[in-house]
Amino acid sequence: MNPQGFVALVLHTHLPFVRHPEHPDFLEERWLFEAITETYLPLLERFQRLANEGVPFRITMSFTPPLLAMLADPVLQGRYVRHLEKLIDLSGKEIERTRWMPPFHRLALLYHHRFKTARQQFVETYRQSLIAPFRELSDRGLIEPIASAATHGYLPLMDLSPSAVRAQIHVGVQAFEHAFGKRPAGFWLPECGYHPGHEQYLKECGVRYFLTDAHGILLGSPRPKYGVFAPAVCENGVAAFGRDLESSKSVWSAEEGYPGDHDYREFYRDIGYDLDYEYVRPYLSGDGARLNTGIKYYRITGKTNDKQPYDPDRAIERAAQHAGNFLFNRAQQIEHLRSVIDRAPIVVSPYDAELFGHWWFEGPDWLEFLIRKAHTDQTALSLIAPSDYFQHYPTNQVLEPSMSSWGHGGYHDVWLNGSNDWLYRHLHKMAERMTQLAREHAQPDALQRRALNQMARELLLAQSSDWAFILKTQTHAAYVYRRIHDHLARFNALYDAVQQRRIDDTRLARLEETDSPFPFLDYRVYAD
Q1: So what's the pLDDT on residue 351?
Q2: Predicted confidence (pLDDT) per residue in 357-392, tens digit
Q3: By CB distance 3.0 to 4.6 Å, which of 48, 127, 251, 452 could disulfide with 523?
Q4: Cβ-count burial 456-494 (b if 16+ within 10 Å, e if not)
């Protein structure tokens, strides 16, 4: 029986490139460690359990090059193992401390088991490389991995330098090919930031589709016949899928969505802040500032400081109920759409992957319940990847999407405002200089080639949209200011060295070790 419609769940998997081998311990490297423990390993565990039990599913996951580079890096792999060992030690002490506190003791045992399992999976099962199991799931057709820009650069604000946009896309696709051994069918535009004309660079790389926010399609020209419930095809044949606002809100919103339920675990109460400082000090970062350890004992409870102990049984039951609710709502949505349009609609629901497990602790369980219920409890819809839709409907409406983004305001507000606008004049100048040198040095010697490749790395790393976002939110602003100025200084020093033909091999080697992604990079991508 053919389904009435389709749902495409898209998990955007991204972190900025943070790697500091020059320091024995670095606070911001924990972003990766937390994501591995709380999101990537739990997702892999559930996907592989479903696969082993013969439950069919189809999930789309974007993998950004910075994340792929960090997951493959031996320095960060070793540091993650040490990070887990400290958590195992801390949770072991928590078992003893909470022995006469039954609700917390049970949770201490849960966390201790969770951290030990994570270490076993990472070290023994996956041999410290998480790319391989995701690639295996891709080879089995269970996930559709898609590419993204080289360093998640915000492409609409680079349009002043087309070679910079082209480089972000081409290098991003190359990184994907190195990781997954094939061309990507789709592409995640960073922050869903679309600028008309950028699809030409996707076409050059053989990309078939990209994702954009709802208004990118709804305000396209001509008006979309099917709204966001079918792909729109640009004139060059690359398709755009628009985000469905209704399904996104039910998962994203902390106020109205599932993650805000009072039975779910409270993210903002952590023993790193709650317990005696001397007790937790050995497990903090080098500067001794309090931070999240990942051990959290309370449920959301409500808008109150009097939080109640977390009950995993109540939370898992709620996750199952919410999965059923999501599935019911999508079936009702599709039934209505099917009554007013002449084809089976596709509901595209994209989320940051780190929502599942990190921000929303029960998110991976919700996702597993959803997949199981979609397989056994209904026939109205089918979970597919966006590229699968073309098998059902190979012909789609041609239109030009509107310039757009997701985030507040929907038109670049988060990435261009008074907190970060100073950044772009530097990025534009760097891109101009990089393009100039790439065109002037078609046949460099070996040392020049290394210097020019490193210049390209510094430019790409400086362009990360994460820096503008963090400057807007002021969460790790001191680190971001330092990162941006470091990349600017390194780029400009290399530019002068290349121009003056006075490249310092020793200093260049240090930069290659510090800022090390994209070993395959060829700076001539900037030469058009």
Answers
A1: 96
A2: 999 999 999 999 999 999 999 999 999 999 999 999
A3: 452
A4: bbbbbbbbbbbbbbbbbeeebeeebeebbebbbebbbbb
Residue 254 pLDDT more than 80?
Answer: no
What is the DSSP track for 127-176?
TT-SHHHHHHHHHTTSEEEEEE-TT-B-GGGGTTSHHHHHHHHHHHHHHH
How does the average pLDDT of the chain come out, rounded?
A: 96
Residue 9, phi then psi, degrees to nearest 5: -85, 125
Helix axes 477-500, 465-473, angle to 10 degrees: 140
Distance CA 278, CA 169 (A): 48
Does 185 score more than 70 pLDDT? yes
Number of domains in the chain: 2
Q: Is the pLDDT of residue 2 over 90?
A: no
Predicted local distance difference test score (pLDDT) of residue 111: 98
Domain containing residue 242:
7-72+129-265+310-392
Distance, in Å, from the CA atom of 45 to the CA atom of 292, rounded to the nearest integer, reads 23
Which letter does DSSP use for residue 448 in this model? Answer: H
249 has pLDDT over 90:
no
Q: How many CA atoms lie within 13 A of 279 on its CB side?
A: 14
Q: What is the pTM of this model?
A: 0.97
What is the number of H-type helices and E-type strands within the chain? 20, 9
Q: Return the CATH number at 449.
A: 1.20.1430.10
Name the amino acid, one letter, at 420: N
| Cβ-contact 349, 251 below 8 angstroms | yes
In contact, 194 and 156? CB cutoff 8 Å: yes
Scanning the structure block, which residue is given the tokens 């950044």?
423
Alpha-carbon gap, residue 279 to 294, rounded angstroms: 15
Last residue of a domain, one of 392, 408, 432: 392
What average pLDDT score do residues 147-171 get? 97
Nearest to 364 by CA among 266, 259, 267, 261: 259
C-beta atoms surrounding 176 within 10 Å: 25
Rounded Cα gap, residues 158 and 148, in angstroms: 15
Please state whether beta strands 209-212 and 143-148 pair in parallel, antiparallel, or not at all (unpaired).
Answer: unpaired
- pLDDT number for residue 1: 60
Segment 244-263 mean pLDDT: 88
The Cα–Cα gap between 45 and 51 comes to 10
Angstrom distance (rounded) from CA 323 to CA 369? 6
Residues 338 and 458 reside in one and the same domain: no
353: DSSP letter: G
